[in-house]
Amino acid sequence: MAMRSSSRSGSVGDAKSPPTTSSGESLASNNFPSLQNQDPAANATRHDELGNTEGTVTMSNADSNSNAVEITASPQEVPDSAAVVAAAAATQGQNDNTVDPPEARRSKLQTTLIMISLCSAVFLSALDTTIVTVAVPTISDDFNSTAGYTWIGSAYLLANAAAAPSWGKLSDIWGRKPVILSAVGVFWIGSLLAGVSVNMAMLIVGRTVQGIGGGGIMTLCNICISDLFSMRKRGMYMGIVSLVWAVAGGFGPVLGGVFTTKTTWRWCFYINLPISGCAMAILAFSLKLHNPRTGVREGLAAVDWLGALMVVGATLMVLLGLELGGVTYPWNSPTVICLIVFGVVVACLFLVVETYVAKFPVIPLRIFKQPSNIAVLGLNACHGFVFISASYYLPLYFQGVLGASPLMSGVYILPYTFIMGACSAVVGVTIKKTGKYLPPIIAGFVMMTLGYGLFIDLDSYANWPKVILYQLILGMGVGPNFLAPLVALQTTVQPRDIASATSTYGFTRQLATSMSVVIGGVIFQNGMQKQYPTLLRELGPDVASLLTGSNAASSVNAVTALPEPQRAIAQMAYFKALRTMFIFYVAFAGLGIVLSFFVGSRKLSNQHVEHKTGLKTLQQVRTPIEDEEKTSLGAEPAAGGVREENGTGESRGAGVAAAPRGDSEKISEGAK
């Protein structure tokens, strides 16, 4: 076992020759006698709680066969070791094996209140992803705007994806609590705007504001859970959040149908106001996490504005190009081509800025150095791509093919919702008990691919055994992969990058869901366009034009108004177009299976240390990163820098303790 206290200003001593007191006695032997005989696995990283921001006593079992003690301290700390001794003495009375300090300071009631408020916010964010799916035709009719059909859903998803990366870094600067309260507040304002909108333009603006806030809610919820619980325990709590997300996404069409048919579609947005208000109040009083008290001016100066604007611009341009292509403009039009090409160019420039310009990058590219992380983010995108398509297009199947009402189409999707939520919760508990996250990932993608493959076998009439069984199979595949990939990602990154990695995870998911709705809609519209000759011959030019092109999905209500012989022809056209779309989603689910085999498997730790936020922490963890880069180029590290091997051949700079491979929870940031 190795132990060291590190700082940015200097280093003294090594593992073979620990520093001594003025009488020549070893600090390791005299002041830490109990540490020499403890089992390495029972020792956790402990923060110096005496206000010493220059050093942290850190223990690592990178080499479980070694009892060497290393103390690296700033020069001013060596003559007077009282602070180090006091810090070690303070940790002796703590329970090293059972409860970590952050959890010991919270009662069960506090934990319950925190989870209720976080889940309430997540419920609303997920609900607004799907609640409008069955209400969109009615909203389009009210505002007499068929062009706004896709934008009602897409505006929320586009803003959600574009804003997601920035929320994590903002929480690193100002702390988790102020930022998550801000995200919920922005979502509240957007809901109010959407609810009182008087035209389609105002509604789309409200949905955009909702999306900006919603993009932060899910990301910040996962970041808060990462700060509150150990790697092993957070799986269960993330499973609860995933259950809420899945249930909300599934119940969205039901609630949307109830509001649309029984009251008014505006309640799809009004419902958010009291619930989000209560969530903000509970979070304000119950969420106790480190508050750096960063000033507004200092915080704004530290934000990677260029990177944030570039990622927003690139995301919007690419998604808008896909949204407009083939619907508003031809695919070969200058507008569509320029949007997509310039979006890709800006994305490339974003990578350059994050690598060479940004002081505190929105998305640290070091996250992508691990092949496992790339695989996790890829399969996360595949999962988001496929998951949202079922929530959006199964109701279209029920309405356009089976002739169901908006309310009943939401009811018919409940088997998918229930099993998806249940599997998500079960996987969270399983990960907590077993510490294994890879089997649920692989099994989930296999079942998801099978489920969508079976959707191709659905009939053009109501074959309920098939409808229910196929939904259950798909839900069993979708549920496990809300949570498990995020746990896999967090095991391979250091604590300093947890927030950025989590926000990147949320960004890839939201980007994929946005692209899924857009691309799925394009495939469906093209499929309906292929049915145009048949519709023209059987139904006449007026009805054929109404049911094809950009009006295809928004005209689903017109199908039920047709007389019986003509209705069957229109329903068959919808059925053929949807089946083509299902085949497309099977391919993405299959890609997820392939990527899942590239995800690394690591042991999850029960030990946990509260992560501190703020500019001081960001600067302290930035210095070792710069030293690593200089060392890799053959240059000398900065003062206080130490090149250190962690037992796996990976070098780490000063202030970052070594950790055994496969247990990122035992990686500690030095100067907190």
Automatic annotation (TrEMBL):
UniProt cross-references to InterPro entries, sorted A to Z: MFS, MFS_dom, MFS_trans_sf
Basic and acidic residues bias locations: 662-672
Organism placement in taxonomy: Eukaryota, Fungi, Dikarya, Ascomycota, Pezizomycotina
Localization (cell): Vacuole membrane
Renumbered residue ranges of the record's region Disordered: 1-62, 621-672
Chief place where the protein resides: membrane
Signal peptide: none
Membrane topology: Multi-pass membrane protein
Alphabetized UniProt keyword annotations: Membrane, Transmembrane, Transmembrane helix, Transport
Function: Efflux pump; part of the gene cluster that mediates the biosynthesis of dothistromin (DOTH), a polyketide toxin very similar in structure to the aflatoxin precursor, versicolorin B. One function of dotC may be to transport early-stage dothistromin biosynthetic intermediates from the cytoplasm into vacuoles, thereby affecting the rate of dothistromin production.
Membership in a protein family: Belongs to the major facilitator superfamily. TCR/Tet family.
Entry GO CC: plasma membrane; vacuolar membrane
Transmembrane segments: 113-136, 148-167, 179-205, 211-229, 236-258, 264-287, 299-322, 334-353, 374-393, 413-431, 438-456, 468-489, 582-600
Protein name (database record): Efflux pump dotC
Biased segments, Polar residues type: 1-10, 18-40, 53-62
Native species: Cytospora mali (Apple Valsa canker fungus)
Superkingdom in the source lineage: Eukaryota
MF terms in GO: transmembrane transporter activity
Domain Major facilitator superfamily (MFS) profile: 114-604
